[in-house]
Structure formats: C-alpha cells, structure tokens
Amino acid sequence: VCVPSPNRPKTLYPQDLIVPSESTRDDLQRITHVPESRVHMVPYGVSPSFRPVHAPHLRRAVAERYGLPSEFLLYVGNLEPRKNLPRLLEAYARLPGRQVVPPLVLAGTRGWKDAPLRETMERLNLGRRVVFPGYIPQEDLPAVYSMAAAFVYPSLYEGFGLPVLEAMACGTPVITSNVSSMPEVAGDAALLVSPNDVEGLTRALDRVLGEPDLRAELSRRGLARARQFTWRRAAESTLAVYRSVLGTV
User: Fold this and answer.
1) What's the pLDDT tens digit per position in 57-77?
2) Residue 230: other Cβ atoms inside 10 A
3) What is the DSSP letter of 181?
4) I need a surface site. Which of 14, 145, 177, 218 has the fewest CB within 10 A?
5) pTM of this prediction?
6) How many whole angstroms separate alpha carbon 58 and alpha carbon 69?
7) From residue 200, how far is each of 40, 137, 197 by CA, in Å?
8) DSSP per residue, 99-137
9) Helix (H, G, I), strand (E, B) or coil at 241
C-alpha cells in the first residue's frame, strides 16, 4: 500500500509504504534502498469466518462437494513453482510405511510452470494418494482446514502467508517453512522446516501424524496465535500510519 506524503520534500520516494511483514520490509529496503522511516509494517488479519468446524453434517457436505477423503494432509494455494510442491510430494512419498498414511490434498488452481509437479507425481507413482479438488471458495475453506490432520505449507517465499494463519484459526496443526515471512506468522505455533530439506519435511509430517499430543499442542497454540491477527487491528494500524504521514495525529 502506498501512502501519499504531501508534507515531505520530493525525493526518489514520494510516498510512504505499508507492508504486511518484517520480511517484506527487509526485502524492500535491500532491493530498492527505500529509507527505513518510509516503510511501515502492518500485518494482515484473518477473517472471523475461519474457525474450527465440528458439525458432522457440514463436514460431510463439504467433503462430498470436493471429493475429499475422511482423513488427509492439506495444502491450500496456487499450484506453482514458488509453493515448492514437488519437494512436498518427495517428502510425502518418503513417509514410513509402518503407519497408515492419509492422502495428500493439494487444493488450488494450477498456476504457471506446473510441469514439475506433474512429472514428480508420475515419477513417484503417487496416483490416487494425492487429491486435486481444484479451487475451494472461502466459505468452504474453514471446514476443509478443520478436517485436515495437518496443514503443510512449504513455500519458498511469502510476503505474509495468509493460509498459515487461516489454518491456525481453524485449529489445524501447521507445518511451514522457516524462511521469509512464515516464521513471523507462525511464531511458536507451527513446526518450521527449511523448504529445501526434504528429509526434514518428512520428519515433520511423520511427527504430526504419529504424535497425537503434538497435534493437540500445535492446535492449541495455533488458535491462540491466530487471535493476535485481526482485520480490526490491521485497519487501526493502517489508519495510524495515514494520520502520521498526513500530519493529522
């Protein structure tokens, strides 16, 4: 978001900027050299509609609508290279055979350059173990998150990572990357893994599936963490930036 700065002298940066994370602020300053005083961090919020869905009839209706299995691991987002999905498939395929491994649901529209995803699917012979329900609208996402055994988001880069917050708000255990903005959003409420570490991602998946106490703890922490991110707080912080820049405090 750009905020006009009428009271400041004209420079290379005539506007103040609002970004959603410290990571994005650091990247912006590193690439463009915009002065630190001109960049303001205002985290996104999560809609109140994202909350645990327990009602069996609602879960059943959503599962039938998208062909979802009774238990599954979940990813939500575009199917594109930045989301690191081939490595997620590699990690999923390496899960130990000593336990029943639920299917992996990759929910989202196919993005650009998705050929590596298809090639990895074929090479690993995952077949029916991976489900592609396509795009799921926001009104159905809370139930989908709530049904998942865990939410896995191994993205290589995010400016904020809103799906991580949505999953936590629904009480879903989260595994996500330890780079860019994801640690800021997740805090201590998720398992953080290097997005390049396939074995590490496999271990995280195995732990979440095999340790009920860990799942319960991540769910509890995630719910508490998500309550810290509201759109009301984001709106108030944005208004404060405008008032400061325009000199109307």
Assistant:
1) 999 999 999 999 999 999 999
2) 16
3) T
4) 14
5) 0.91
6) 14
7) 34, 31, 5
8) SPPPPEEEES-B-SS-HHHHHHHHHHT-GGGEEEEE---
9) helix
